[in-house]
Amino acid sequence: MAYLWIKAFHVIAVISWMAGMLYLPRLFVYHCDVPKDSIQSETFKIMERRLLKAIINPAMVVTWILGLILVWQGGWMTSGWFHAKFLLVLILSGVHGFLSKTVKIFAADQNQRPAKFYRMINEIPTVLMIGIVILVIVKPF
After folding, report:
1. How many separate domains does the chain show?
2. Measured by CB atoms within 10 angstroms of the end CB, which terminus of the chain is less buried, N or C?
3. 0.90 exceeded by pTM
4. Taking a C-beta distance cutoff of 8 angstroms, is the pair 60, 66 a contact?
């Protein structure tokens, strides 16, 4: 029964992490379109920082902790599908790191990238999520 509770909270954490990972680059898109030092820019900085610190970071930590517990309890360490999923989660964590760095860049008014760049970056978590979900549900190998 504990396994199912851990899995439920893992899924909740994943949903929270993904919601933030999908929303943060969209904030960057809109942030690019406002003048630096404007009220709108300062508002975006607060929104980006709070989203990262209050939702995305804690959700990622909980996702990782509970996910590793599930892997250990389920005995999935030697499964091929798990290795592929683990790689995709590592890449997603790298994207998380990139987005965290980008929050700091916007906070310092040093962004040099156009909104189009962040529109493209916004698709990466989606593609990774699709791959991860398929691997977990279908377990193709």
Report:
1. 1
2. N
3. yes
4. no
